[in-house]
Amino acid sequence: MGKRSFYTWGFYWFSAFLYFGIKLDQTHLDLRYILSALGFSGGLKSCEEKLGIGRKGGYEDIDGYFAVVLWQYYKKTKDIKALETLISYNIEDVLNLDYLMRVAYNKNISLLSLKTNPVPLREKAENPLKADFGLVSFLKKRTCWSWFKKF
User: Fold this and answer.
1) Pick from 49, 85, 110, 138: most CB atoms within 10 A?
2) Which residues 6+ apart lie within 8 Å of 128 measured at CB?
3) Helix pair 80-111, 133-140: axis angle to 10 deg
4) Beta bridge partners of 30
5) What separation, in Å, do the N-terminal and C-terminal C-alpha atoms of the chain show?
6) How many domains is the chain partitioned into structurally?
7) Which ranges constitute the DSSP H helices of the chain?
8) 3-state secondary structure of 96
9) Residue 62: which domain range?
């Protein structure tokens, strides 16, 4: 919501900044814990589903495990479509995190009876990068890690 804050799903992502000593002057909010306190537990995709913004258009077939498959495939083959699909999947995460932050904020101010206005739940922005779902389908048929040794 603010220009000086960023949202993640799980501390493990943010811990990389700490490990490498990268200093950030933005506020970091881990939405996994904020939404869990509101009764929405599970992974990011599960919470998106519960809040009515589940992935559509092929993105529902991509999860964190498959993101690693895409990355490994890109590293082995240098197929730019794999990299673009991975980045497109990550953009979907970013676009949905903004919506989830707004929902969490509004639910919290409602529960606490704070006299402040809720933030608007705006339409999700369009993902500027398109995933190659043909490639996703191709790789889904070959999910065994040993398969990547062929490339």
Assistant:
1) 85
2) 91
3) 100
4) 8
5) 43
6) 1
7) 11-19, 31-37, 44-50, 64-77, 80-111, 133-140
8) helix
9) 5-150
Q: Give the closest residue to 46 by CA, choosing from 57, 58, 35.
A: 35
Ramachandran quadrant class, 57 (left: phi over 0; alpha: psi -120 to 50; beta: rest): left
Per-position pLDDT tens, the chain of length 151: 555 666 666 655 555 556 667 776 777 778 888 999 999 988 888 899 999 888 888 898 888 888 999 999 999 999 999 999 999 999 998 889 889 999 999 999 999 888 889 999 988 888 999 999 999 999 988 865 444 545 4
> Tokens for 127?
């993902």
Torsion of CA 44, 48, 50, 53, to 10 degrees: -170
* Structure letter (DSSP) for residue 27: E
